[in-house]
Amino acid sequence: MYRSHNCGELRIADVNKEVTLAGWVQKSRDKGFMIWVDLRDRYGITQLIFDEARTDAQVMQLAKSLGREYVIQVKGTVIERESKNNNIPTGDIEVLVKELTILNEAQLPPFTIEDETDGGEDIRMKYRYLDIRRNPVKNSLLFRHKVTQEVRNYLSNLDFCEIETPYLIKSTPEGARDFVVPSRMNPGQFYALPQSPQTFKQLLMVAGMDRYFQIVKCFRDEDLRADRQPEFTQIDCEMSFIEQEDILNVFEGLTRHLLKKFHNIDIDKFPRMTYDEAMRTYGNDKPDIRFGMKFGELNAVAQHKDFAVFNNAELVVGIAVPGAASFTRKEIDALIDWVKRPQVGASGMVYVKCETGGHYKSSVDKFYDQEDLAKWAEITGAKEGDLILILCGPANKTRTQLSALRMELGNRLGLRKPDEFAPLWVVDFPLLEWDEETGRYHAMHHPFTSPKREDIHLLDTDPGKVRANAYDLVLNGNEIGGGSIRIHDKATQELMFKHLGFTPEQAQQQFGFLMNAFQYGAPPHGGLAFGLDRLVAILAGQETIRDFIAFPKNNSGRDVMIDAPAPIDQAQLDELNLAITLKD
Amino acid sequence: MYRSHNCGELRIADVNKEVTLAGWVQKSRDKGFMIWVDLRDRYGITQLIFDEARTDAQVMQLAKSLGREYVIQVKGTVIERESKNNNIPTGDIEVLVKELTILNEAQLPPFTIEDETDGGEDIRMKYRYLDIRRNPVKNSLLFRHKVTQEVRNYLSNLDFCEIETPYLIKSTPEGARDFVVPSRMNPGQFYALPQSPQTFKQLLMVAGMDRYFQIVKCFRDEDLRADRQPEFTQIDCEMSFIEQEDILNVFEGLTRHLLKKFHNIDIDKFPRMTYDEAMRTYGNDKPDIRFGMKFGELNAVAQHKDFAVFNNAELVVGIAVPGAASFTRKEIDALIDWVKRPQVGASGMVYVKCETGGHYKSSVDKFYDQEDLAKWAEITGAKEGDLILILCGPANKTRTQLSALRMELGNRLGLRKPDEFAPLWVVDFPLLEWDEETGRYHAMHHPFTSPKREDIHLLDTDPGKVRANAYDLVLNGNEIGGGSIRIHDKATQELMFKHLGFTPEQAQQQFGFLMNAFQYGAPPHGGLAFGLDRLVAILAGQETIRDFIAFPKNNSGRDVMIDAPAPIDQAQLDELNLAITLKD
Q1: Are strands B211-219 and B161-162 parallel, antiparallel or unpaired?
Q2: Which of A371, A560, B165, B301 has its Cβ near the most Cβ atoms within 10 Å?
Q3: A182, B182: Cβ pair inside 8 Å?
């Protein structure tokens, strides 16, 4: 061992101890006759002191040569500091150095190793091993470890068994795009990397394992949106002989445990909301309920006058922005411009200021009187001093637009507090959703989700209306997990594939192993998966996942540190019976 | 929840309770007026009783229809059994059924769901979800979970932080063959799946994470020998500011903890042996030291007579087989045939029977007298009643042959007891080994292993003699882990690549990111990886890993259950800019 103590543990009680420390030079101050060095490791910072009067001249000389991020080992005596530093736990002491060894020199790092660094995202990713030395990243990784340990212990105590499922599986064109892996031993054939262990965990239920979990990497070859990664980590779970209520209880318990453990927050019972209600009230299936601004639908009280824009709209809907009646004309115009940006796509916005004394002032005063506007205020829940913002148009689109506006205002007004946690179950998701591009229905969750029994008769007549036994856990406006009660009999599974446009042959070829398994005694089962990267980020009060992943990829799916992906040797291609067909 | 209790928990104290159980029909006995059903789930078996006198006629009728592996739910009353079954924990009670629901029917399984099944390996793999219902496989998976939980908690308590490293990395032709993953977003380029997180864990040390571990899947595209898997799991660890001694201590502690926890065995200090000693004494770098039969080198006492076979041999070496002097001529001939099989490859074998009264009888009595043979007995440690078996030839080959014989005899004589655990550290491995095929030196562990400082000068003159700071943990004749102190400076790493036949450009292109990292303050570091699949199997007293993997692949790398790998769509190939060049 190169050290007797780490850089975070010495205290006033250790004074006079002879110690050996090792770590990185965070910084040094050279006053000529005295040199102070902040020595850093994962556990903290300890101040070293080299003093002409008490330190050997040769050691003194060597100390003067130390550069930032040099790796050194020192032996010395713990002494009480003259001027204490209350900001760090070791701030009462320093180590008077007797011996100094340079273990490794360091080039000047390309950015400062400080909490607030001068390095941009790109350079930090290229030198991620230096970036991780910074407290914000280091602490994110340590926090992630703590969360996963808690999750594992919590689930293990509930008799969940972690079982590793294979990474080299079979490609299924349904759903997102697979990463594939050519097989050398089976020429012309490919494995696929799992998008999730879905079918395997269901087979484990057929196998009688009863309660399964796995913290597992999953892969999707998608064009990356901001903050998506081609490889990501799931807390994947499945249970047998349960109903939806049982799953919600178990994972509500897990989430409650994490909130208590890491934030000392007690949340009794998580609220629940149907998908329909979430869409109507927040325009969103993952509403952030830390703040209000619930949607008020105004058709009944806004389509009786001569305002054609409203009269022709499928939906007129507004929100009351608290305290925003004081917004200037310029500020409101900026908001109107904001909703008209192509990313939001509204064609315009109506506003109503709820001024003091119960007076309303709106951009449509020409069409509506005070009595009309009072009704709008009532429906949107607007109070004196609030600002009502109203959008109209096709129902779904308008809800999405108003939801975007609500979230933007939530951010701007500081209503999305990072230390507040508002979990919410959204239930009763639709089974199917219409896909414009392919002109057919897709499974909203996946093809193994069971329809609600009472809705099955709608599959032929009104497929979009069939509700699924599917649920999402939403935390602070982020979907952190989702799952469903699965189909567990062959007939229903075949019916589902039929409605998803599979021929019986396609269904058999791709998922025959699962439907076959259902014929050998499959128990009722269901489960859920949490996105670990996001869960950890949100638990840490942040929304970007990148700092919670040691070596993330950029938006082109590249690891810029190791420079991957990269070309491979012709010999490798030959062995795999592959040729590249790039026409460039 | 479909049940109030599981099938393993009801006891005599539960008599008179109204309970609901769910599970699989293990078997049923129909006596006409009474039917007994063994209901099984992961937790155990509970006997159900349907009694004409006490059970509704309709339920009775339904019970008669139950087939093996049907999934059912029953409601009933716990009653005391008339004839108790002491073999199962629930054997004092049975459940008198009032209501019966068939949750799912089952086709007759293709093999019996019993501890000793009638199903062969192939059919069990195809229906692995049924195979896992059998206790031996189910318990193996549950045991694996317990071991991994212990490992995680043990290492976490020692401040090790589990950090996920990427699965989509860069191919490096050094070492075993990579599985590669074509990148759609970076046409013509490929990721590789990691053979181990080696470089990433070293970068985490450069990053200051100090103590890392990860239980992680690794991938090697090798022609599969028996009991190898293309994907396998490692307990991967790395530490900074340590020396070899520190790493051995930590992982000896972990192993000791597991042996104590799962077998209540206390092993104080693990023995250590150098690689040279292991090869000389056991002909093997992973000796099973649960039994003796150490090698005795006989050159000095066997090359002084007219026996040309011995005189011309580089090495004459023997072992004393305890109590085997009683072997018949036929048995000994069979052993001679065994060592002459091509898999072993010896050209012959000499034997000496150590008979009672201090008399020796050998197959070379023509050449050697009793005094000679007494010396052989002394050197091999043979006692009265033992049989000395002697091979000769080129030193390395002969040692390997004698080692194979020793292991075979250890098995035959029952000396390799599954409930005995004999760990051993093998240290001071050679840095390089000569590869006949490529005509150059390869790294025996990997190119990042540091040479012993005192041997570096031999790199140019006698590379095969350079010892590495490398060590293996051996348990019962199996290598369960290995590791090394790493190189942590660019100059030594460059020197190493040079001796492995890399041009500076190749080294830079493939491992530039690591050597670059070493220039920014790399701490001294080292680590180790345990093979989890094997560790778990050996801890369970078994040597084949397949039952400890939920969904293993066969020797052609196929998952016969899901039928992977498989061809993919032309559209997928096109998107990846790939063509298959099979000439067939």
Answers
A1: parallel
A2: B165
A3: yes
Contact B145 A153 (CB under 8 A): no
- A265 and A331 inside one domain: no
User: Six-digit token pair at B420?
Assistant: 């005995």
Distance CA A40, CA A26 (A): 6
ipTM of the complex model: 0.95
Q: Which of A127, A180, A562 sits opposite B572 (nearest CB)?
A: A180
Comparing CA positions, the residue from B270, B267, B271, B292 lying closest to residue B281 is: B292
State which residues form the domain around A73.
Answer: 12-104
Q: What's the pLDDT tens digit per position in A498-548? A: 999 999 999 999 999 999 999 999 999 999 999 999 999 999 998 789 999
- The answer to whether the Cβ–Cβ distance between B127 and A200 falls below 8 Å is no
Interchain contact, B521 vs A184, CB within 8 Å: no
A450 & A540 share domain: yes
Q: Which of B415, B448, B480 is where one domain is finished?
A: B415
Set of chain A residues whose Cβ sits within 8 Å of the Cβ of B153:
149, 153
Q: Residue A64, SS3?
A: helix
- Contact A550/B200, CB-based, under 8 Å? yes
Pairing of the two strands A93-104 and A44-51:
parallel
Q: Which residues contact A274 (CB under 8 A, 6 or more apart)?
A: A426, A427, A428
Percent share of chain A, pLDDT over 70 = 99
Place of tokens 């080692």: B403
What's the gap in Å between the CA of B142 and the closest CA on chain A?
Answer: 6
The answer to the question of residue B392 being in a domain is yes
Say if the Cβ atoms of B149 and A133 lie within 8 Å: no
Q: pLDDT band at residue A223, thresholds of 50, 70 and 90?
A: confident
**Structural domain count, chain A:** 3
Q: Are A399 and A485 in a shared domain?
A: no
CATH of the domain at A43: 2.40.50.140
The CATH number given to whatever domain includes residue A148 is 3.30.930.10
Residues making up the annotated binding site of B for ATP are: 220-222, 229, 479, 531-534
- Domain presence at residue B263: yes
Domain ends where: B353, B383, B415?
B415
**Quick check: is B286 in a domain?**
no
Q: Is B430 found in the same domain as B384?
A: no
Report how far residue A462's alpha carbon sits from residue A420's, in angstroms, rounded to the nearest whole number.
41
For B338, the 3-state DSSP assignment is: helix
Put simply, the answer to whether B106 touches A519 (Cβ < 8 Å) is yes
- Categorise residue B531: left if φ over 0, alpha if ψ from -120 to 50, beta otherwise: beta
- In this structure, the answer to whether residues A153 and A81 fall within a common structural domain is no
Q: Is the distance from CB of A344 to CB of A405 less than 8 angstroms?
A: yes
CB A525 within 8 A of CB A517: no
- The reply to whether A297 and A352 lie within a common domain is yes
Residues 190-209, chain B: which have Cβ within 8 Å of A? 190-193, 199-200, 203-204, 206-209
A566 closest CB neighbour out of B179, B187, B189: B189
B106: distance to nearest CA of chain A, Å? 4
Number of residues written out for chain B: 584
Distance (Å) from the alpha carbon of A68 to chain B's nearest alpha carbon? 9
The DSSP bridge partners found for residue B30 are B35
- The top-scoring range by mean pLDDT among A163-177, A432-446, B152-166, B445-459 is B152-166
Q: How far apart are the CA of B7 and the nearest CA of chain A, in angstroms?
A: 12
CATH of the domain at A310: 3.30.1360.30
**Which residue among B210, B519, B557 sits closest to A41, beta carbon to beta carbon?**
B210
Residue B82 lies inside a defined structural domain of this protein: yes
pTM: 0.95
Residue B182 forms contact with A (CB below 8 Å): yes
Q: Are residues A405 and A430 in the same domain?
A: no
Question: In terms of domains, do A318 and A411 share one?
Answer: yes
Smallest Cβ–Cβ distance between A24 and the set B130, B208, B572 belongs to: B208
SS3 content of chain A, % helix, strand, coil (to 5): 30, 25, 40
